Amino acid sequence: MPVIEYVYSAHSGYAYLGSSELMRICKSADVVLIHKPVLLSPVVDAQRGQSFRKRTQQHVDYFFGREIERWAEYREVPIINYRPSRHDADYSLASGMIIALGETGPMTDRMAHNLLQAHWRDDVDLSDQAALGRIATEMGLDAETHLERAASREVQETLRKNTEWAVSNNVFGSPTYFVDGDPFYGQDHLTLVERALHTPFKPGNWSNPSVA
């Protein structure tokens, strides 16, 4: 059975844009999806990437005002037309809500999608315990118990280890999908992810045709 290791942050706009398509691919190809939520800043910093806080306003406006909206239209995904109000808030508890359900399975899939959707469709603050509790309740979970588990030392240590794993595996950002160890960065590469499940890329098997 094929496996995809799914590396993402719980507040990632592009993870949200690709979430439904990723689930479709996994269902179609009978894939085991392994969730690896991470804290994004340490991953980006390790690759010497530039956080949005350090980018020009023009770059931020393009990213949130054009690129995300175009992909949302293409994927037919509902999304707010502005940067989420609390996008820079601490999302470690939200990440813990995913991890607490296990690294794979339908409930983990649902929680990941529901958190991303809440943030990008409904402008939910992912550090707001009451809001997170409502998401848990809507999924049929005991909110208090699940939030306590999400905040536990064990779960938060898994989040830390996921982040370290991403750094050691040269992840650039969120989302990144690993198919048999081969990384694909960005939801715009999901077509190639799907192809790799049945036709793995073999470096050196393709070359540019001669130019006369």
UniProtKB/TrEMBL annotation:
Residues 4-197 form the DSBA-like thioredoxin domain. One of its GO terms (biological process) is glutathione metabolic process. The active site is at S12. InterPro entries: DSBA-like_thioredoxin_dom (IPR001853), GST_Kappa/NadH (IPR051924), HCCAis_GSTk (IPR014440), NahD-like (IPR044087), Thioredoxin-like_sf (IPR036249). Its EC number is 5.99.1.4. GO terms for molecular function: 2-hydroxychromene-2-carboxylate isomerase activity; glutathione peroxidase activity; glutathione transferase activity. It comes from the Bacteria. Gene3D superfamilies: Glutaredoxin. The keyword DNA-binding does not apply. It catalyses: 2-hydroxychromene-2-carboxylate = (3E)-4-(2-hydroxyphenyl)-2-oxobut-3-enoate. The keyword Isomerase applies. Transmembrane segments: none annotated. Keywords: Isomerase. Belongs to the GST superfamily. NadH family. This is 2-hydroxychromene-2-carboxylate isomerase. It comes from Roseibium album. The lineage of its organism: Bacteria, Pseudomonadati, Pseudomonadota, Alphaproteobacteria, Hyphomicrobiales.
